[in-house]
Design goal:
single chain, about 200 residues, mainly alpha, 7 helices, about 0% strand, disordered N terminus
Length: about 200
């Protein structure tokens, strides 16, 4: 009975996906409003940082040497891996076969938690070296931008935990399928923002 219900529900999802000739926006419309607004704000942050970097190149290059590229790279690998796991999980949900999807979301959650741990290690190292948000313009940007992003990661972890709980159910309703897709979009945004932050702070001297 549950399998039949799931099949019917996914036919409804398929219809929404464009099988009736009408294009469908992935996830909830509201998530795209949030994502576009959030990325616009970050774009302004990035532009401000690049302008300050251009004006104070020597100072920024000096402070840049205090960061460990290896830690930034590790965190990038963790988030990209988590994003891949979420993408696979959401694809399985949309295809109507979410068996094992909960484990994918939990693994992505583990990668996200590991990101937080690595970031805590990095911040602790900088604090012990006397680098704080008040040390200089470079570190003001660094702690502010990475701190805001870390807040996004924490929210994303709660989202992934919710997706894992939903995917553990034997059958998913149409709203739950869309919730999984919406949560995946949010997590991909978190990963994308980090990739830009990684390039700005760890690669640009």
């Amino acid at each position: 009975m549950a399998e039949a219900m799931t099949a019917v529900e996914h036919k409804g999802i398929d219809a929404q996906r464009g099988d009736i000739g009408v294009p469908r926006i992935p996830g909830e419309v509201g998530i795209w409003v949030f994502v576009l607004g959030d990325m616009l704000i970050f774009a302004l942050f990035f532009a401000t940082f690049m302008y300050s970097h251009h004006v104070n190149q020597a100072r920024f290059a000096h402070d840049h040497d205090s960061l460990l590229v290896s830690l930034g790279t590790l965190n990038t690998v963790l988030l990209l891996t988590s994003s891949l796991l979420v993408a696979v999980g959401v694809a399985k949900v949309l295809n109507g076969n979410h068996s094992g999807t909960s484990r994918l979301f939990l693994c992505a959650l583990g990668c996200g938690v590991s990101f937080v741990v690595v970031k805590a290690v990095e911040w602790t190292r900088l604090f012990t070296e006397g680098k704080t948000v008040g040390t200089g313009e470079y570190f003001s940007y660094y702690f502010m931008f990475t701190g805001i992003h870390l807040g996004h990661v924490v929210i994303g972890l709660a989202v992934l935990a919710r997706l894992a709980a939903l995917a553990a159910q034997p059958a998913l309703s149409s709203p739950n399928v869309r919730a999984c897709e919406t949560g995946g979009i949010f997590w991909h945004m978190v990963d994308l923002l980090w990739v830009v932050l990684f390039a700005l702070f760890y690669l640009v001297r």
